[in-house]
Design brief:
The protein is 41% helix and 23% strand. It is built from eleven helices and 15 strands. A hairpin with a 4-residue loop joins strand 1 (49-51) and strand 2 (56-58). Helix 1 (3-16) crosses helix 3, helix 1 (3-16) crosses helix 4 and helix 2 crosses helix 3 (30-44).
Amino acid sequence: MNQLQAMRVFTRVVDLASFGLAAKQLGMSAAAVTRSVSTLEAHLNMRLLNRTTRNVSLTEQGEDYVGICRTIIDQLDDMESSLVRSTRDMSGTLRIAASTVFANTGLTGLLATYRNMHPQIGFDVTTCDTTINMVEGGFDVGFSTQRSLSNSTLVCRKLTAFAEIAVASPNYLAKCGSPASVSALNTHNLLSAADGGARMWEFSDGRDVQRVSAGGALHATSSETIRAAALADMGIALLPVPLVKDDLEAGRLLPILGQYLITSGARPLSIVYAGRNFLSAKVRNFIDYTVSQYRAPEEAVMLRVVA
């Protein structure tokens, strides 16, 4: 027995003082309404209604019980209405997980423009360079730059990709020399950002692909850590272009091996979330807005800092 449904049916019969009218309003047959009330009475082991061919009236126990039913039904309806309003409400806080690369490049621009349109929305941002656990972390959306996601239950929508560039500091190159070929990298300190395991750097001269095992000098989970190490003259790094754009313009880092094409794969930027169903209005709107920015004809230059 669906007790809550039976309570609703019983209350409607009482309000209308008729099984037949209650059946019409509820879209049920008269027999189904009668059976529902009888089942409820059997469950409670008490008679709730006195029935005659012309009249329906409450028993003493029925008087007490219908009051309880009204209180429960009203509280439940109020709670459901509140929940429905909250899912449609464009206010509150969005909990966001973002890779360090994106957090330090395009994220703040994206959030700023979105909040200009929805000033009642706030953001709680957590940066990370490891796998985003959306469920345990309680995040609404995540921005990942990992080449593959271990959690197949997440919805993953690719937004763009970050090209990578080989760089080193002027001091390091002055001390150790600038490599003229890929094979020369084997004599240098290589700094590698982790991506689920050891990295192989791949370069192409248009004919052949050459590979170098990276990370002998430093292997870290954070691209920002590798950038800091390169700035500290520790070695040569392969980093996303947006992360080192300002450093290149200021001369703090210099590009190397520009005659080669880096073929180890651009780093994707994807927006991830726990599912397509039952998203609140603010979460769905933010996702749709973000995707639209990366698919706009002008490619939203201010938000999309890629090479």
